[in-house]
Amino acid sequence: MRRLLVAVTATVLALAGTAAPAAAAPAPGGAGLGDEYFPDYGNSGYDVSHYDIRLRYYPDQDRLTGTTTILASAEQDLSSFNLDFILDVSSIQVNNRAAAFKRQGDHELVVTPARSVAKGQALTVVVTYSGVPSNKVAAGYTAWIRTPDGALAVGEPEEAWWWFPSNDHPSDKATFDVSVAVPDGVEVISNGVQPRNPTPELLGWSRWYWRSAKPQATYLAFITIGQYDITRDVTADGTPVINAYSQLLPEDYAAAARASVERTAEITDWESTIFGPWPFTARGGVVAPPGTLGFALENQSRPNYSAAFFRAGANPYVVVHENGHQWFGDAVSVAQWKEIWLNEGFASYAEWLWSEKEGEGTTDELFDYLYATESDDFWTVEPGDPGPANVFDGAVYDRGAMTLHQLRKAVGDDDFFAILRTWVAQHRYDHATTAQFIALSEQISGLQLDDLFQTWLYTPAKPVLDSVAGAKAAKAAVKAPASLAKIRAAHEHR
Hints:
By secondary structure, the protein is of the alpha+beta class. It contains 12 helices and 22 strands. The strands form 5 sheets. Strands 6-5-9-3-2-12-15-14 form an 8-stranded mixed β-sheet, with no helix packed on it. A 4-stranded mixed β-sheet has the order 1-4-8-7, with no helix packed on it. Helix 6 crosses helix 11 (467-476) and helix 7 crosses helix 8 (413-427). The protein is globular. Residues 49-220 form the Aminopeptidase N-like N-terminal domain. It holds the Pfam family Peptidase_M1. Belongs to the peptidase M1 family. Its cofactor is Zn(2+).
């Protein structure tokens, strides 16, 4: 007992004479999340949980004014942090105190709170701003699209900068409330559900309300403003279906668009049988005015479509593709933009499966035809790491789909479709990597698949098929499956 007391006393005296280590000083958050292709996209040091975006839009001036409230939590002791944004900011509040702010580069806004923020502390950031988005240039272009009757905030990978401040990277998802005041008679469409009907606001103005209750990547948030005809329905499970068609569509385009987009509930019901339950609280689509949007984009719960997809008649394949993304790209997002094949290859394979279901070409026939006819340049792009200039290259779509078909051949249908459903179930509302997909495929199949993925995703050359498969693919060059033109039409504007 005596010796124990002596030892304790000596320890106490020793500690008393030792200075406690100094706490680390708060530091700035990073201007970027370390994406290999776009290193300054997104920001480190905090994690966003919710955006409340409240706007007013003047169509005759293309002028936007608004306030965005960001709810987040600090992931380190912060002396300052960055937001991705390019409109003109008049004030910023951080936790109810005015904050200093300055521009850095073409899209970074550096915010310095009046008081530093401790790791784990809640952040409430209120940004008030205005500007003419179509006059703002960043990353070498203007993503905001002004239309004859309004505007489109639709784009990938950059779009949020032109209409709300954010942590702009798919690895930081959040829920959204979006409300926009516009002149009476103008429609506003966005993601998710309408928690309330449009309400009068000032003389001659109405405010529209939209809510995304499931985590959503910033580039998937959108607003479409103008003259639109809106249709509403409810699926058998009670999910609202809201579609919108520009009133500027020529009559033949409008009919073809409706014959395609009005099938959204049918198509997504079918996709649910393959990929798992519908992951969001609403469904639908928006067709833009002709000559404005040059692509289709899988905006969460409600894709936006170029009118050009319907110039030759109905095109359900683009509806299949963009809604395939609701599972692959939206519910499960990429951790890095280099992983984009996890979005596009999977959505493209959804089109192959639809083609097979419709009797317009089997997945084998589509694979064989593409293998036999694609140019040498096609095979030089590695879909698993295409490079920042090729994130939307045709190989990311088609060779990505071919990779999945080779996986299906290797593991069999039961394991293949179990892999797809498990992938979504495990990573829903989060982000994931190719390495995780390979690991899951090996876990479910019990096979070693490194060589397969190395060959199809990461080799800049045409893979060699065995002699039987090669001969079959060579014969397929004689005639393309009937669905191929529609599938390629669904890709050509991306």
